[in-house]
Target: Nicotinamidase-related amidase
Amino acid sequence: MQNSPSKSALLVMDMQNSVVSRFVAGEEALLPFQKAIEAARSHAIPVIYVRVAFRAGYPEISARNKMFGGIASRSGAVAAPEAMMQIHESVQPRQGEPIVTKVRVSAFAGSDLEVILRSRQIDTLILSGIATSGVVLSTLREAADKDFAITVLSDACIDADPEVHRVLTEKVFPQQAEVVPVDVWLSRL
Model:
């Protein structure tokens, strides 16, 4: 029996206004993301966007959650402005490209991402996003546990700490994923 060809999807994670405004100093840092998205589209690879968002009053957030627990108290339990939760204009989704909303760090946490992937018979994920030590790391680990093949686009990931980004992309991620710059990934399409 022959193996069927893999079916890939590009995940563009946490590229929403609230995150991009904190991590990206200049538009040139977004060029690898734009290049990957356009290449995926031109090769009929689905592009799936992932964002983090919460309901008014933050019922999804526990005070024990070290990463998200302080959000409700800092914002007076009022939902973040909708504009801050939207995908950044430089990497806007096209009509029909899903936007998955998650409530934790991993793209799978509290979202319907796995349902979308399985319904499309996707078995290979190409990961991009902000931050390398946040959504990319958490999603990579969970995707590996769910038996997806994984590629991380090293220059389409950003972290506040360049050394953490380097250690993750050079030492940690290769244990469970192929890690390549966007141009290398493009050369293989």
Remarks:
- The radius of gyration is 16 Å.
- The chain has a mean pLDDT of 89.
- Residues 132-145 form the longest helix (14 residues).
